[in-house]
Amino acid sequence: MKKSTLYPMALVISILLLIAIVYMIFIGRISDSGWLFLGFFLTLAFGFSGYKSVKGFVFAILIFAGISISLYYPDFFTEMGSLKLTVLIIPLIQIIMFGMGTTMSIKDFATVFESPKGVLIGVSAQLLIMPIIGFLLATTSNFSPEIAAGIILIGCSPSGVASNVMAYLAKANVALSITITSIATLLAPFVTPILMKLLAGQFVEIDILSMMWTIIKMIIIPIGAGLLFNRFLARGTQWINRVMPLTSMFAIGLIIIIITAAGRDSLLEIGVSLMVFVLIHNLAGYSIGYGYALMFGLSERDARTIALEVGMQNGGMASGLANALGKIATMGLAPAVFGPLMNITGSILASYWQDRPTIEKSKS
User: Fold this and answer.
1) 299 by DSSP, 3-state: which?
2) The domain 82-354: what is its CATH number?
3) Domain boundaries, the chain
4) The pTM is what?
5) Helix (H, G, I), strand (E, B), or coil: what is residue 159?
6) 171: left (phi over 0), alpha (psi -120 to 50) or beta
7) Which runs of E-coded beta strand occur in the chain?
8) Largest CB tally within 10 Å, which of 174, 295, 339, 359?
């Protein structure tokens, strides 16, 4: 059988599995549908991988496959013998950050001098918009204090490497995107704890110094190690540029699965409501970030960049902080939901912009 025929066949199977899921829901047996959900997402991901127009959704669909199996069978992802799998979260984030560091160099910061206006506006948008939106959403929700604090936490986190990928797909300013991500990440040990103390202090106790040290260990040191590796050891080891993206994707998926399993009961209780709040947070970040950039006279290309930088946050860092606070099953839920959703919405937005190339030059 030709490989080209496997993709449409997989999509047909995914449709049949979806029909079976709807039937199971209709007869009140959704609790017995775990393997149907897993099969649906896996066949859908495989089917989408054969078509360029929807290939960008494959990773997010695979994440949903992992989430579905962790919701139905959480025991597989909470403990392994006497080992609680939540202890893997911070090491996995450190691996992701090391991978980010290996892709960076001092040249990435040249945009600060080439386009200081764009960088200043982008970083200020990153530090202002999402934390404030997160605070407003948290205070208007009826969630428990720790779950509400998780919404603020994702807002107070910097952008991640996913925004750089989406900037490339959206024909935005990739150099500006990388610079904003890098600067926001380096500022995170100082900015995130202070913002959390100011905005989330009414929900949970925040120790600023302890949170600073956690971010330094979890983010800054691994990125620094990756930078040094890229500077001194990368020659002759180009394989790492192929291995690290796949390793990072696997690590992100595993983190989300572990958090979902740990917070399964809370997620089943407030999952739909939390998803709505998180989606509002994400979409508001795109739209307000875009408008914020245009308001200050940036070009369409740079406005797209800042929209993606604001709307797409580093859910891994937020999850690690929630885990360090011992609140992964509550405070970690919003970051776990935010990650897959932002990849879907970011892919849709990037695809939309990809077909609408910009012509004007940057005014920054």
Assistant:
1) coil
2) 1.20.1530.20
3) 1-80, 82-354
4) 0.84
5) strand
6) left
7) 79-80, 83-84
8) 339
